[in-house]
Amino acid sequence: MLSTTVVVREAGTGAAILVRLKNISLSGCYLETPRQIRVGTRIRVILQTSGIHADLWAIVQRCGDAGVGVRFTNGATVEDWKCLEYLIRELRDNALAKNAAP
User: Fold this and answer.
1) Within 13 A of 62's CA, how many CA atoms are on the CB side?
2) Residues facing residue 72 across a β-bridge
3) Cβ neighbours, 10 Å, residue 8
4) Do 22 and 67 form a contact (C-beta atoms < 8 A)?
5) How far apart, in whole angstroms, are the C-alpha atoms of residue 72 and residue 28?
6) Are 29 and 45 contacting, i.e. CB atoms less than 8 angstroms apart?
7) 3-state secondary structure 35-77
8) Model pTM greater than 0.85?
């Protein structure tokens, strides 16, 4: 399972929340969050790890007790989608390496 910390900003308030990324694809992700975010809320998901930075807009699609599922709508720039693809590969490679370690 993928797991890294990311920053989420609500579009309306701009308030930053540190959340835990638990699953990700090119279409969206699941975020564990200490605070509820309503379905339909537009948020910025800022993903960053070892020099890779992707700034993406998303819509909250579902809420659960432990977090939210979001659908990506667009990146702040065209490069953000390329960074997202690279970031997904890096996170998966790191998770595979960690699981393969004795």
Assistant:
1) 7
2) 58
3) 23
4) yes
5) 5
6) yes
7) CCCCCCCEEEEEEEECCEEEEEEEEEEEECCCEEEEEEEEECC
8) no
Taking the C-alpha atoms of residue 28 and residue 70, their distance in angstroms, rounded to an integer, is 5
Helix (H) or strand (E) holding 34: none
- Cβ atoms of residues 57 and 77 within 8 Å: no
Amino acid symbol at 102? P
Residue 43, amino acid: I
- DSSP letter at 26 equals S
Q: What is the pLDDT of residues 24-70, one digit of tens each?
A: 999 999 999 988 889 999 999 998 877 788 899 999 999 988 999 99
